[in-house]
Amino acid sequence: MHAIETKGLTKYYGKVHGIIDMDLQIPAGEIIGFIGPNGAGKTTTIRLLLSLLFPTKGTGTIFGQDIVKDGPAIKKIVGFVPSEVNYYQKMTAKELLEYSARFYGVALTGHFNEMVDTLNLDLSRKLEDLSMGNKKKVAVIQSLLHRPKLLILDEPTTGLDPLIQNHFFEILREENQRGTTIFFSSHVLGEVEKLCSKIVIIKDGRIVNVDDVFSIKKKLLSRVTFHTKTNAEDITLESPGILSPEKNGNEFSFLYKGEIPPLLKYLSQLPIEKIAINEPDLEEVFMHYYANDSNKI
Amino acid sequence: MNANLLTKELKDGFKGTFIITAAVVSYIALIFYIYSIMKENMLRLVEIYSYIPESFLEALNINPDQVSNVLGYYVIYFIYFIPLAAGCYSIILGTALLSKEEQNRTAEFLLSRPISRGQIISSKLFAFFIHILGINIIVFITSFLGCGIVSDWNFKLQSLLFLHIYGFLICIFFGMLGFFITVLMKRAKPITGIGIGIVLGTYFFDMMIRTSGKVQFLLYFTPFKYLNLDVLSKDYGFEAWRLLFYFGTSGLLIFLSYYFYKKKDILV
Questions:
Q1: Which residues of B touch A104 (CB under 8 A)?
Q2: Beta strands in A14-56 (DSSP E)
């Protein structure tokens, strides 16, 4: 049985589409990344899975239960971390977590205390006084209070500092080892690849690719930026895999698709002073790879 | 219904309910205090009323023949604190209970708990009933004590009770109207101004009906027409058509609120 399965799931807001004909199968027990640029339909998908929205057409199930008819039963086994944490501002973190726990009929015991210690959260403060990062910690803890079978995370690391992010990823790995399926939505490829075995890519409301992280990473672009020692007006970047070259005085920048060693061999012939090879913005990747639906990875 | 959500709503609404109850109780104490001072001279008040145009007295719901009786005096003011003041609070509470979750964007938290839309609306409706019932019971007890003390317990308790039940029913009507308006809104938000406008506007329609025979069609647009304030009549009590209106309209609004809320996209 799949943890999440959708067939032709479609959502329109009036005439504007949210997602279109989404066929998605998330196997139980895996950590799956769900990436796409802002406005691609990630949050719409999640809100449909949680029955905050109702589909225009199509169906969806979570562990075999219908997302429209079986909402309360599904939510007993699902934990959710939203992208923006909007909880009851006048409650303290502890009051909010107790309120949440009562819905599931669970007590705040050992498992809860461990998470509070790991994430270093002050429970006595009101939510209105907490920073975005601390609110996110509250969201993470409330999502795991009832030991869910499926954890849905919508941009969960926003506001978390790198150290806490690492602790958070450790918690997620432990939960996954315990059998929890994790559906991790993000627009940052880097954090998804740290954790996920497979990635689902969504653009303009449609799934454009599903693959394992290694394959996608191999096929994705790099952003290369270098400075030359002198003003090199005669330099023209011509090599297989170089896309959209830009020149600004001594600075050159381009997207690169392919293996890195041949590129370095080519660049070594140039009078380079310093060079940086980074992961490009996801928006850039999508602009190049998914300009139209036929141009898939 | 969900006890956890109900408990939270009762706690959240306590302050507002306490303030409106305290205000109404103070007002009742004041009007009975005034009555206790004036009761020996009520005939002079009736004489003063004789100089005021009848339609004006009709508009203000004043019957000069009744003011010397404690219930007849009380009913003049009753309309201002139960149907109007508590009615305004009811419609505001009815809209706020649901809209605050969308307005404060906590609907995402609430709807991702293991609770159905039906349970959410039932819990909030039940919380509403408890708040409004609480106000009405305390106000009834206060008016009972007031009537008793100033008249040496010489008044018809049953009439006072029926009057307050009518008041409670109109509060329920306005609250259900508030719920219904909220579920129809694409992005629910508090409608305090509109809510008060609806209560006062429908009261204004009732005043017009009482003062002019030409606007009788307005009775279809005001719940005040279905109140029975004729507390001194011999056969004062419940009348089927009035009860049918309150139970029918409130029941329909509850049904439609459930129906639409269960299908509503929550846009947070």
A1: 113-114
A2: 16-27, 31-35
pLDDT band at A294 (very low <50, low <70, confident <90, very high): very low
Say yes or no for a CB contact (<8 Å) between B112 and A89: no
Eight-state DSSP code of residue A72: H
Give per-residue pLDDT as tens, A50-67.
Answer: 999 999 999 999 999 999
Candidates A82, A84, A103; nearest CB to B115: A103
Question: Distance from A265 to chain B by nearest Cα, in Å?
Answer: 52
Which residues of A are less than 8 Å from B105 in CB distance? 84, 86
CB-based contact A102 B4, cutoff 8 Å: yes
Helices assigned H by DSSP within chain B: 3-38, 42-49, 54-59, 70-79, 87-103, 107-111, 117-151, 157-184, 192-211, 240-263
Q: Which of residues 181-210 of B touch A (CB under 8 A)?
A: none
- Most A-contacting residue of B109, B112, B113, B266 (CB-CB within 10 A), to test interface: B112
Can you tell me which residue has the tokens 């609070």?
Answer: B89
* Cα separation, A68 vs A48, whole angstroms: 8
Cβ atoms of B232 and B67 within 8 Å: the answer is no
* DSSP category for residue B187: S
Interface pTM, i.e. ipTM: 0.86
Rounded CA separation A156/A34 (Å): 12
A278: nearest Cα among A260, A297, A261: A260
A 247-276 residues inside an 8 A Cβ radius of B:
none
Q: How far is CA A236 from CA A82, A152, A253, A269, B46, in A?
A: 46, 47, 12, 12, 104
B114 inside 8 A of chain A by CB: yes
pLDDT in tens, B152-190: 998 999 999 999 999 999 999 999 999 999 999 887 777
> Tens digit of pLDDT per residue, chain B (268 long)?
899 999 999 999 999 999 999 999 999 999 999 999 888 787 788 888 888 888 888 888 788 778 888 999 999 889 888 889 999 999 999 999 999 999 999 999 999 999 999 999 999 999 999 999 999 999 999 999 999 999 999 899 999 999 999 999 999 999 999 999 999 988 777 788 899 999 999 998 988 888 877 777 877 788 998 888 888 888 888 888 889 999 999 999 999 999 999 999 987 7
The alpha carbon of residue B238 and the mean position of all alpha carbons in its chain are separated, in whole angstroms, by 17
Identity of the residue in B4, B263, B268 whose CB atom sits nearest the CB atom of A103: B4
User: What predicted TM-score, i.e. pTM, was given to this entire model?
Assistant: 0.85
Helix (H) or strand (E) run with residue B82 in it: none
Predicted confidence at residue A193, as pLDDT, reads: 79
Separate counts of helices (H) and strands (E) for chain B = 10, 0
A72 to chain B, any CB pair closer than 8 A? The answer is yes
Place of tokens 């849905």: A152
Q: What is the pLDDT of residues A212-229, one digit of tens each?
A: 877 776 666 788 999 987
Phi, psi of B131, rounded to the nearest 5 degrees = -60, -50
Amino acid identity of residue A115, one-letter, is M
What part of B 3-62 touches A (C-beta under 8 Å)?
Answer: 4, 8
Residues composing chain A: 297
Mean pLDDT, chain B, integer = 90
